[in-house]
Amino acid sequence: MRKVNPLWLLMLAQIGLILYGFYRLTLTRLNVRWFEVAWVIVGPVILMSFFGIYTYYNIKNAYKEPSEVRTSDRCPVCGAFVYSHPNTITEIYLDGKYMYFDSFKDMLKFIKDMDFYISYRKLNIKDKKIKSIYTKDFQTKQWIDGKKAFYVNINDDIYAFSSLESAKDFAALNNIQEIKTFDKLLA
After folding, report:
1. Is residue 70 part of a domain?
2. What is the pLDDT, as a whole number, of residue 1?
């Protein structure tokens, strides 16, 4: 069964109080109490505040910047502790969860065979749409957008760079001719 956000219950209660106050003010000839008038006036403001908070919460969580990696975070592909690979950490956000990978290569494996890893690791993921991908720049160790980064494949690992120039310099040092983008890696 799907969880109901408690904020929705508060909003429904607020709507009920507003409708009750409106009913008492307009459709009955009974004496109206001051708090009933207050609910009709202040109620919509409070209701819009609840909607605003709910919308802000969803937008904030949907496109949040990457968070710090905990020592207990493990890669869902290989099971390695992620914090022990500071140069190649990758983070994706899907279905309201942040998942960390010890390398970009493991994250690509996860994306290409998501059904297997979700069932194998018993991950509770229903919506498989990835909202954001962040990876660490190999030189600066700063988080960068994984879809806009440039990648150099050396031996058995993939390294990310924020600029094409730094990727070219690194590739030239290691005698690599090809620099890839995110779309080329997925193909």
Report:
1. no
2. 44
Regarding whether 109 and 150 lie in a shared domain, the answer is yes
> 86 and 58, same structural domain?
no
Let me know the angle formed at the C-alpha of 57 by 82 and 74, rounded to the nearest 5 degrees: 10
Which candidate, 3, 8, 17, 91, places its Cα nearest to that of 57? 8
Specify the pTM.
0.63
Identify whether residues 174 and 95 lie together within a single domain: yes
How far is 99 from 144, CA to CA, in rounded Å? 16
* DSSP type of residue 91: E
- Alpha-carbon distance of 42 to 174, in angstroms, equals 67
Token representation of residue 85: 């690979």
Q: Which residues of the chain have pLDDT under 50?
A: 1
Q: What pLDDT shows up at residue 156?
A: 81
Q: Identify whether residues 92 and 42 lie together within a single domain.
A: no
